[in-house]
Specification:
Layout lengths: L16 E7 L9 H14 L3 E6 L3 E3 L10 E10 L3 H14 L14 E7 L4 E2 L5 E2 L8 H10 L12 H6 L7 E3 L4
Antiparallel strand pairs: 1-4, 1-5, 2-4, 3-4, 3-8, 6-7
């Protein structure tokens, strides 16, 4: 993937632009969720205005809230881009649609989910629109554990707590395990 230019590179993990990704349904074109997610990350970088700096390990996670749907494959990517947060979120939604995501109901099984979870230290809250940092990220092992892989020491811009502190406070009932490398 391309080398980011100095103007768009994140200065530190505190200023990181972070995308969480997940899927729990296979796609006809790409197969298993992990393969779909790898293809989606390649697609994000294809136009040259988004550089993937680092990708976490992939994690297998039980659905939140608990349900009978298949377990998810989740991860986090640290990126650099000159796109605004709004334009980046729009791009994420375009890639989701390209990969077959249809938004029907919250917490439903899905072929792909791309979430903008942090855009540097920016705080964005629009009624019915963009919310950065992601409002529920601090409660979810499937975001925090992979986030630590790509931005250890990251500090939540609202809660002013490190990712490690947030992980320590997670409820014990969230089931997550690192996926074997493929």
């Amino acid at each position: 993937m391309s080398t980011p230019s100095p103007a768009t590179t994140s200065a530190s993990s505190h200023d990181a632009i972070l995308i969480a990704f997940g899927a729990n349904l296979p796609t006809q074109e790409y197969g298993a969720p992990a393969q779909t997610l790898k293809a989606a990350l390649q697609r994000l970088a294809r136009d040259g205005d988004i550089s993937i700096e680092q990708v976490s390990s992939f994690y297998e996670t039980a659905p939140v809230p608990i349900s009978d749907q298949p377990w998810y494959v989740n991860g986090v990517a640290r990126i650099s881009t000159g796109l605004s947060a709004h334009d980046l979120l729009e791009r994420l939604h375009e890639v989701e649609a390209e990969f077959g995501r249809v938004r029907r109901e919250r917490n439903a099984a899905r072929v792909i989910d791309l979430d903008l979870i942090a855009y540097g230290r920016d705080l964005l809250r629009e009624e019915g629109g963009i919310q950065v940092p992601h409002p529920r990220m601090a409660e979810r092992a499937f975001v925090l554990l992979p986030l630590r892989d790509v931005a250890s020491g990251w500090v939540h811009p609202v809660l002013d707590r490190t990712v490690e502190d947030l992980i320590a406070d997670l409820p014990a009932d969230q089931q997550i395990r690192k996926q074997a490398e493929s």
